[in-house]
Amino acid sequence: MSATRYRRFLKLCEEWPRDETKKGRDLGTFLRQRVASAFREGENTQIADPEKCDQMYESLARINGNVYRQRFPRARDTSFTGVTVEECRVLLSGSMQQSMDDEKKGLWKSLMEKFSSKSPEDGPEKTSEK
User: Fold this and answer.
1) Which of 13, 19, 29, 114 has the fewest CB atoms within 10 Å, counting from its CB?
2) How confident is the model over 26-49, as pLDDT tens digits?
3) Bridge partners (DSSP) listed for residue 84
């Protein structure tokens, strides 16, 4: 029975899309990692709670199959802010996150990183005084 569960999760992982713009934050990549850690021995893995495993699979399969999107259709593909789906994708992309992090640093840290061979997080070197 464990082999069947393993194959079902593998099929789900194959179907689940990856978003290359979200390196390190992608749900598809996270799902693949969790399945790999849960089924370390592949088809021979012993599952402690088969009922919970089946529930988790069914939930993920419903999300992947857009069951709730079909059951509860939206009038428009925007949020209350008026931002479209494509604008959300751009805002949540890795490159936008990186530029936001750069803006948070502030002028002084940016200049220090630009003109220093050492990063400001390393702190000043302590010299021993005798």
Assistant:
1) 114
2) 888 899 999 999 998 888 888 888
3) 78
